[in-house]
Known about the structure:
It is a single chain. By secondary structure, the chain is of the alpha+beta class. Helices cover 53% and strands 20% of the residues. It has eleven helices and 13 strands. The protein has a five-stranded antiparallel β-sheet with strand order 2-1-5-4-3, sandwiched between helices. The longest helix is centred in the N-terminal third of the chain and has 48 residues, at 40-87. The protein is rod-shaped. The two termini are 94 Å apart. It comes from Paenibacillus jamilae.
Amino acid sequence: MNFWRSLVGKLWITIICLVGSVLIFLGLFLLPYINRNFAAHESTEIKHLFTYTCIVGFLLTTFFALFLFTKITQPMQLLIQAANAIREGRYDTRLSLVTSDEIGELAKTFNHMSTELEATIRSLNEEKNHLSSVLRSMSDAVFTFDRSGQIILTNPPAQSLLDIWEKLEWQGRDLEEFGASVPEPLLPLFHTVMDRGEDVGDYIHVKKGSWSVQMAPLYTDNAIRGAVAVLRDITEEVKLEKMRSDFVANVSHEIRTPLSMMQGYSEALLDGMAGSPEESEELVQVIHDESLRMGRLVKDLLDLARMEAGHTDMYRQEVDVNELIERVHRKFTVRSKERGLTLDYYESDQHLLLPEADEDRLEQVLTNLLDNAFRHTPSGKKVTIAADQIRGERNELIRIRIKDEGVGIASEDLPYIFDRFYKADKARVRGEDKGTGLGLAIVRNIVEAHGGSVSAASVLGEGTEFTILLPISIKTRQGSVTSL
């Protein structure tokens, strides 16, 4: 700091000016008086004394100024430097002044203030970091808006959601403004919060996604300054709820049909509507068939529930796929003749061997697929089975293909044919031997339990081909496994 601009410098200049004014005044009025009333030698001595007094006065004034500079100005400069350091963010700055005067008390107060300020800032930073970590770790999307609707804060899930929504087409909305202001699905809730000043909640649906939204106002001095919104993705919950309701409806329908037939035919028997033993036997046979059908439905439901819960009992052993397919082929040969179908098996020259597989479960897979092919293929057509070994991306695979020449499956139905109770075309299931709607779902679960995959390709009017890929070296999903 410039000495002349300091407090001590200004005080020293003021004292010098005062002393100088006094001396000038004395020089103008006192010296003529001395010359008139004193002898020459006495006048000279008095003048010398006056000069010495002026010199001593100036020296004492300068010494006093330097003393004040040491005791006041330098501590004040240190205090100013420390205050500037605090202003720049160096909150660990402290003063080392040890005096018993007011400046010492000021230094102690400053150090105490710095300590408290540092603790407060540290606490605020920790709270900010904690809040930031909480927001980053949340799976829910969090948006914060100001009063004008501009986005001022988002967490990673919210930013990802914004990126997805920006790619959609919104009527009357500029894409450049979309990512900076309230997204279109949240606008009604935002206006409600700003108008009412209270928490609101609702469900929004964008394309195939569903979200639960909770929005609350943000206050500053009892004035609404914005809003915060929390979005929870409930798409899977909505799908599961729909699957549950569809499952209940489908089970009710599948069970109600055989129950109605059993009730109707049993009432006919009780009322004596059968006019001959043959008619009575026919009615009893229908009741028996429907009871068997209901039993198959319940058994399939229990098996499927156990598989999807990961409690499938797998008795793993070495399985010869050629022998397995040959046995299934012989079992269905008689049935194919009864239906007027041709069942061909193209046996591979390769030795197809699975080191760890459940032979009974794989036979159930082939049985379900062949049963499905027979029911959907008209008389005079052909069903073929083929198996070979191919090289996959990571390991060797055994590929089993079952192809029919039936009516085929529409392309829009193909993604759903492995769902429970899904029937692409109920009208094409002919005859009385109707399925339970669970066969393909069971096929998928068994194949996946073996670490494989199943897919379908179809052309309407030409037929359908199911392809099973089973890895020879597998890592099965978790379940109940029993090895022989």
